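lol so apparently i was supposed to do this last week
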Amino acid sequence: MDLDLSPNIQAMFQELILDHYRRPRNKGALPDADRVIPMHNPLCGDEIDLHLKFDGDRVSGVAFTGRGCSISQASASMLTEAVKGKTRAEATALWDRFHAMILGDQEAARDKSLGALRSLSGVSRFPARVRCALLAWDALKQGMKG
Ligand code: ZN
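anyway here it is w/ zinc ion bound
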């Protein structure tokens, strides 16, 4: 069953993506970052450096630098808002949920706990953009290892 979004919701989602693209949240280097993970998407030319700081098991700081298409930059901006303050387990659960949604899982796309991230659910219909949406998230996964 396809996700049946009203034109109003689609317009709202589009607006949210553009808002994060034009006014990215937590963009800039994190001076005391524990890890900086560079990611590159050669298909589209997107570049993201994800900066992470941990306080024990918790992601206490997250920011990004980089450039690229609206999907890649909006996704990174939304990631920083969604992940800050979460434990590794919570961030991993969110990663799983977001990943499933981007790959077309309709149930995940309806999950209100994803908040603003749901605005990227439409990306699943454009396989060429999937990598753009997942770029910052792949950096997050790598940064939480070990
Ligand atoms: Zn892109």
